[in-house]
Amino acid sequence: MPLEAVMVCMDNSDFTRNGDYAPTRFESQTDAVNLVCGAKTQQNPENSVGILATAGDRVDVLITPTTDLGKIVAALPKVTIGGMSDMLRGIQTAQLALKHRQNKNQKQRIVAFVGSPIAATEKELETLGKNLKKNNVSLDLISFGEVEENSAKLEKLLNAVNSNDSSHIVEIPVGPKLLSDVLLSSRIVNDGEGGGFGGAGGGEGFEFGINPAEDPELAMALRISMEEERARQQQTEGGAAP
């Protein structure tokens, strides 16, 4: 598997409160981000992954690329919903974070989740794509929620950045499948390696991208951590209710 430094851009805009993807766009996206981060760290133990949020007062870098999956998972609950997503600025910030990666032998990749209307123009996105390509940064796009509205813009961006089929897009319309289930069989997670991540035949994927049979302690620790955080959030929301 390739040696990569990856920045994941999360869409935490108000649009992600929408419940058209169960249970919400945001929670479904969070599960998918867990999957991507777990897959990348399992593909190569020297891969590093970072996370940023694209909405709010500014683009928020939650964690710069690290090989520690525990730190990555711990950063996710810090993402709060609010405001409009600035995907253009988010990807530019991710590119800057990758430029300062510690291991310069790592190839650079950005995985951007897009769950709200894109404010940037096609021209701006095309310029962004060309700049990424010039600096050898690959880009994976996961479009959900506003798939049709964003399709033309994302295609323009992908065509500008794509080099030797190193960048990909997955469009996930509303349906019975979770975002993470669709990504399990995509090249974004499988990296075009045949059997790919999640077991032969593309069966059920492992939670957090960790095979419990290989590392039961880590899988259990991550599961407990997420369950505790969800319980805390539910308690907080319950306490805030009138």
Number of strands: 6
The CATH architecture classification of the largest domain is: 3-Layer(aba) Sandwich
| Count of folded domains | 2
Mean pLDDT: 86
Q: What would CATH call the class of the largest domain?
A: Alpha Beta
Separation, N- and C-terminal Cα atoms: 51 Å
Description:
This protein has 242 residues and is an alpha/beta fold. The chain folds into two domains: 4-185, 3-Layer(aba) Sandwich (Rossmann fold), CATH 3.40.50.410; 205-241. Helix content is 42%, strand content 17%. The chain has eight helices and six strands. A six-stranded mixed sheet has the order 3-2-1-4-5-6, sandwiched between helices. α4 runs parallel beside α5 (147-161).
Sum up the structure in keywords.
alpha/beta, Rossmann fold, 6-stranded mixed beta sheet, 8 helices, 6 strands
In a few lines, what is going on in this structure?
The chain is of the alpha/beta class and 242 residues long. The chain contains eight helices and six strands, in the order E-H-E-E-H-H-E-H-E-H-E-H-H-H.
